[in-house]
Amino acid sequence: MIELRDVTKTFPQGKGEGGGLRAVDHVSLHVPRGSVYGIVGHSGAGKSTLLRLINHLEEPTSGSVLVGGADLGALGERGRRQVRQSIGMVFQQFNLFRSRTVLGNVAYPLKVAGASRAEARERAAEVLRFVGLDGHARRYPEQLSGGQRQRVGIARALATSPGVLLCDEATSALDPQTTHEVLALLERVNRELGITIVLITHEMDVVRSLCDRVAVMADGKVVESGGVYEVFSRPQHPTTEAFVRSALHDRPDGPALERLRARHGGRLVTVPVTGDAAGGHELSRLLREHAVDFTVAHAGVGEVQNRPLGSVTLELRGAEADIDAVVARLGGLEKAGAR
Ligand SMILES: Nc1ncnc2c1ncn2[C@@H]1O[C@H](COP(=O)(O)OP(=O)(O)OP(=O)(O)O)[C@@H](O)[C@H]1O
Q: Domain ABC transporter, which positions (predicted)?
């Protein structure tokens, strides 16, 4: 649905190499039709610029951007406008017109696209029903809560029946409960309307609950990408590792590990838990074989894409030689805090 081929965007006013700032640096990315694709990264990593390249609010310095097979760079102004109309956008700060009603906000892009007043109002009412705000059509944005405003933002983005929805930190200004509701709505947008979603966020929890695929950006580059479960279970890049740990909260950090050591006299090992049940059986067999006893000292196991993921930190007790044998056999399983 969306393809970026070796895309670079340099801003001339930056202080980087050759006087320019490379906000997006040789990025290639493929977003399959019907997927929910998350782009994560710290502030300044280049996420917003990447999103703006997809709907051609920014032009790439080099490389090409294809949406639905059409190369945006090769299209004329009219073609680009058409492609842009097939892409909806949702913003962190909602960007609603304060002086227009909810219905007026949602009808606005339809009027711009040339719909009659009656058509625009009818379609706007329809999308407002979809987002559960049909009773609020005559209100003004400031009479609504943050979550309701974002639902209006989503309704406005859906009004022109786009094939793609781009979300720029769509839940970052919302509290956890409202975030949950907006993510559930975006999930319906994807599942019921078949709309491809690309969202940028600095919260891995958003990726975990909504996305099928994820790309991690650092310094303008995509440092890692893949299926959400694969990236969560085997992060390769330090930036990814930090994001994943922030969502899973599964391992004791340095100070927590010190407290565990003070509390538990035996040897501490951290063992990953994945969807692979065989790994769990292997662990209990090892402990039994070597007559090593255990206590759970710390655990963080949840679900990612409906499959278990996390880790447990165990205190092992038994003869030193037996514990050594278990720890050695854990081999591929990760040892942390072992002493
Ligand atoms: N129009 C512009 N002119 C000059 N520099 C820009 C422009 N837009 C972005 N940049 C710079 O490009 C880099 C990437 O910015 P971008 O907004 O894409 O990052 P981001 O990952 O979205 O960060 P944030 O989460 O803070 O929005 C930053 O160093 C930023 O200052």
A: 2-244
